[in-house]
């Protein structure tokens, strides 16, 4: 009797995990959000950014927390490499834009923009809600090709592989789309 119960629990866990993010090949939901780059606010449009090349869209739980700050530092250091490949990097969290104005300067080092998803519509559209704290986004990174299709997804609360993995995905895309 225990084995069927365990099997049902495992199946439910796998089904939940499968719904945790959009998959490669899915069309990324278009969105516009208030963003900040170097402390200057603007409206970021995914559709407009995709006209320039692939987009690395990474969700992070909360500005100025240890992992999120370290991840932003790594993305800032890698931004020239992403730009050389024609890619745009944008971070997104549920933080208010006033907080992100500071975060874009201090943590992002004026290198890439961060957007506010205070109403949580974008993280819900991308299935990037942190299950244990649904008011926050999970740490999920997407690489979206210029045609709007997702080509890479990575979810892990440990920030340490997000930059390297998304950079590798952009390099692979670029190699097959010179």
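^ structure tokens above, recovered residues below v
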């Amino acid at each position: 009797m225990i084995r069927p119960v365990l099997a049902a629990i495992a199946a439910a866990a796998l089904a939940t995990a499968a719904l945790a993010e959009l998959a490669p090949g899915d069309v990324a939901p278009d969105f516009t959000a208030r963003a900040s780059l170097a402390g200057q606010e603007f409206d970021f449009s995914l559709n407009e950014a995709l006209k320039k090349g692939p987009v690395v869209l990474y969700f992070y739980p909360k500005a100025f927390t240890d992992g999120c700050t370290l991840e932003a530092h790594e993305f800032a250091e890698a931004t020239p490499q992403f730009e050389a490949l024609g890619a745009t990097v944008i971070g997104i969290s549920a933080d208010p834009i006033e907080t992100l104005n500071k975060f874009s300067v201090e943590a992002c080092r004026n290198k890439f923009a961060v957007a506010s998803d205070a109403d949580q519509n974008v993280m819900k559209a991308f299935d990037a809600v942190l299950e244990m704290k649904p008011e926050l986004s999970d740490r999920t990174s997407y690489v979206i090709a210029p045609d709007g299709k997702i080509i890479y997804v990575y979810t892990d609360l440990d920030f340490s592989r997000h930059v390297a993995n998304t950079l590798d995905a952009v390099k692979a895309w670029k190699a097959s789309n010179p």
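The mean pLDDT is 90.
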